[in-house]
Amino acid sequence: MAFGVARIDSSRVVCMTRTSAHDGLSLVLDEVSAVELQTKSPTAAAVVALDPCSWRLLAISEGSMGGNVCLSVASISAVLAGAGISIMVLSSYSGEYLLFPSETQDAVIAAIDESDLGATLHILPAHTVSGEALAVLAGLDMGAFAAPEAFSDTVSGRSPDRSSPRESLGHAHTLTFDTLTMARIGGIASSSLPVILAPLLDLFLFADASSDRPVLLSMFDVGGEVSILADTESASELEAAVEAAVGDKRARVVLRMWRGSWTPIRVAETLDLVETGVVASLAGPLADAGIHAMFYHSTFFTDYTIVRHDDIATAKTVLSARHHIPE
């Protein structure tokens, strides 16, 4: 897959996320792709910020779509926050996955064993993607595609500095519900990805080139299925592109989109990679309030909690007890 500043094998890109309303492009890559990104493009250093730490994937649950997703995320995030371990979470169409720094693996296993959660979790082996350990986080400056002369030396994103880990279980954040108002969630088999790849990349790179409309897009590829998270307008464009390519009847098989309305809740600040307890402070109160259908999505820049639109009023009430929600 040709992707801007470097050639990245699509089988080695675990997750791409773009939120044009606020951030650049967030990537989760295998280590080989990360090296290629740094060495094969003369402009990569100015465009891409790479976290020097490698991360491992842990499967929280599989086939949990529509089930008690929030309970799974809340339980494991609380356990690891209590152990002082920084985590990121990626919800997919078919399961929930957690990223943790590779050097904390022994501590993660110990915390899980002590909590009796081990029966529902498993850590993916080191040779999951193209024979290389997962994963490396990166943030891409979207100005790379529009104004090369304006490249900055660094890309603003989560701080990779782990010299002073911050354990902030009670730290309050500002949450925003505006701008990105609706989301759609879907899945497509990896074997069918060529059908949707061109329009998907168009949206990732150029969706807001001529307008100010906000874009929320994520493509997450694990286990032979690509999970897609998109704002309503982008999802409609993807569905139309698939229908044009394969016909209306087959399109419903190739691209499976949930029809429900979902609302993203964004942490308004840039988060540190070393900060602990962020996921627990969001997922925990929602689970306690009975909101069990939830998607959690971490990026290089910040975090998103995505709940059913019908649950937004309850979510605002329970989250405002700990976090700041502007009127």
UniProtKB/TrEMBL annotation:
It comes from the Eukaryota. InterPro entries: ACT-like_dom_sf (IPR045865), CASTOR_ACT_dom (IPR027795), CASTOR_mTORC1 (IPR051719). Residues 53-112, 261-320 form the CASTOR ACT domain. Coiled coil: none annotated. This is CASTOR ACT domain-containing protein. It comes from Thecamonas trahens ATCC 50062.
